[in-house]
């Protein structure tokens, strides 16, 4: 760092090799539009929308001004038994973009909290309907649903699970849908693998539907390295869940707010879940906030119960005034600039650009949809993840920020990206692939 007196020791960084990072830190000091600025003065092209969240680009004036006005007017209001106008307004506007029938919104502070909220609502819903035996949850291998105990229990990433004991009881997992042998270098959704959804029938046969509350999946798995649903897979999951009275939860913390060409992946894929979890792009990453969209049927079931508090759940910062102001300003930008559909408009160009990497050293698969792509490398002799990390570092040295997850490079740029910037991102990966081969 330029300031040698600023120690890095006190901050225990999340999901980071702390000793490795602090030996050679990569510090970002500013951001505007499509670019970060590093502490050495270099501009860094953002190929990851921060961490899947800055969909409208960085430091947007509308958001900055809205946050500044709100914090001066009303910095905080308690959400328990009290209210203020903004979360009501934000919820109403958000439901104009959610799938038909998902018209109720519960606010949280993160994707992790959104997932745990959704799981609790699902189990409580069945209890209120006189089906209290429906307590089991079904996740999926390679799934990422945040870092709460509920989320890591239904999640399917081994490093997120193995250190933390037995987790929640009563959780099963569907097989993941990644099949490089059958689907390598597919453009868009893979054709092979829809039948994997039928594994849910085997879980039902094992436990009986009367014991299963909900299935939770990401429409596409982002943190696992952009694992896409085969054609017809999500529709089949919906059919099986409906058949057996099981709630279907879509975790759209990554896919929501325009990432694949619609406000929600549920809209793009034409499959309506019962609950949708979101966060990240809700406020463009400016202020922590999450939102859980719930079907009218679920909400009305709670409202038809005994008088009093219908759901004993919530957070100190649910619907926080400043976060809600950021959310409203972000939604204004999405709507005014047509960003919910921009990924679809750029999809063909993006697709051809990323697939031009086929044939570069050690690239064994490329997966894409909307404005997201996963570039998978063969592991090096040094070990799994080493090559992916070296590619990530090389791209950063070139002035481009991409994300390494194992030996997969994930890209999810802000939706305001232009074609020359797409070309630059792709070229940086090509150069990095050759440099670290």
UniProtKB/TrEMBL annotation:
<keyword id="KW-0663">Pyridoxal phosphate</keyword>
<dbReference type="InterPro" id="IPR015424">
    <property type="entry name" value="PyrdxlP-dep_Trfase"/>
</dbReference>
<dbReference type="Pfam" id="PF00202">
    <property type="entry name" value="Aminotran_3"/>
</dbReference>
<dbReference type="GO" id="GO:0008483">
    <property type="term" value="F:transaminase activity"/>
</dbReference>
<dbReference type="InterPro" id="IPR049704">
    <property type="entry name" value="Aminotrans_3_PPA_site"/>
</dbReference>
<dbReference type="InterPro" id="IPR015421">
    <property type="entry name" value="PyrdxlP-dep_Trfase_major"/>
</dbReference>
<dbReference type="InterPro" id="IPR015422">
    <property type="entry name" value="PyrdxlP-dep_Trfase_small"/>
</dbReference>
<keyword id="KW-0032">Aminotransferase</keyword>
<comment type="similarity">
    <text>Belongs to the class-III pyridoxal-phosphate-dependent aminotransferase family.</text>
</comment>
<keyword id="KW-0808">Transferase</keyword>
<dbReference type="InterPro" id="IPR005814">
    <property type="entry name" value="Aminotrans_3"/>
</dbReference>
<protein>
    <submittedName>
        <fullName>Aspartate aminotransferase family protein</fullName>
    </submittedName>
</protein>
<dbReference type="GO" id="GO:0030170">
    <property type="term" value="F:pyridoxal phosphate binding"/>
</dbReference>
């Amino acid at each position: 760092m330029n300031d040698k007196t600023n120690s890095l020791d006190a901050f225990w960084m999340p999901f980071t090799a702390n000793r490795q990072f602090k030996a050679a830190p990569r510090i970002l000091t500013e951001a505007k539009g499509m670019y970060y600025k590093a502490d050495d003065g270099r501009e860094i092209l953002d190929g990851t929308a921060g961490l899947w969240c800055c969909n409208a680009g960085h430091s947007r004036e509308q958001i900055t001004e809205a946050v500044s006005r709100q914090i001066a007017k009303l910095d905080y209001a308690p959400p328990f038994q009290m209210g203020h106008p903004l979360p009501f307004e934000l919820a109403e506007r958000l439901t104009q973009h959610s799938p038909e029938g998902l018209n109720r919104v519960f606010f949280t502070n993160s994707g992790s909290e959104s997932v745990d909220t959704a799981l609790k609502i699902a189990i409580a819903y069945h209890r209120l309907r006189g089906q209290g035996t429906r307590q089991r949850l079904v996740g999926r291998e390679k799934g990422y649903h945040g870092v709460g105990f509920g989320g890591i229990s239904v999640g399917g990433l081994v490093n997120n699970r193995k250190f933390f004991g037995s987790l929640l009881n009563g959780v099963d997992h569907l097989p993941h849908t990644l099949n490089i042998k059958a689907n390598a270098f597919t453009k868009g959704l893979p054709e092979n693998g829809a039948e994997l959804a039928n594994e849910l029938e085997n879980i039902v046969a094992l436990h009986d539907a009367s014991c299963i509350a909900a299935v939770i999946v990401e429409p596409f798995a982002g943190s696992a390295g952009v694992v896409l649903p085969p054609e017809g897979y999500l529709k089949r999951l919906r059919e099986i869940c409906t058949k057996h009275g099981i709630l279907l939860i879509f975790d759209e913390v990554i896919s929501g707010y325009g990432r694949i060409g619609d406000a929600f992946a549920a809209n793009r894929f034409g499959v309506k879940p019962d609950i949708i979890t979101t966060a990240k792009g809700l406020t463009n990453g400016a202020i922590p906030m999450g939102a859980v969209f719930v079907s009218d049927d679920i909400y009305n079931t709670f409202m038809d119960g005994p008088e009093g508090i219908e759901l004993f759940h919530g957070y100190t910062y649910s619907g926080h005034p400043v976060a809600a102001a950021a959310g409203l300003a972000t939604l204004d930008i999405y709507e005014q600039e047509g960003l919910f559909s921009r990924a679809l408009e750029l999809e063909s160009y993006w697709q051809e650009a990323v697939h031009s990497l086929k044939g570069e050293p050690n690239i064994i698969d490329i997966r894409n949809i909307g404005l997201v792509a996963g570039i998978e490398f063969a592991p090096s002799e040094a070990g799994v993840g080493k090559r992916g990390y070296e590619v990530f570092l090389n791209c950063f040295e070139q002035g481009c920020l991409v994300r390494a997850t194992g030996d997969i490079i994930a890209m999810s740029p802000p939706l305001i990206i232009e074609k020359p910037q797409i070309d630059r991102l792709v070229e940086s990966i090509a150069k990095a692939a050759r440099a670290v081969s």
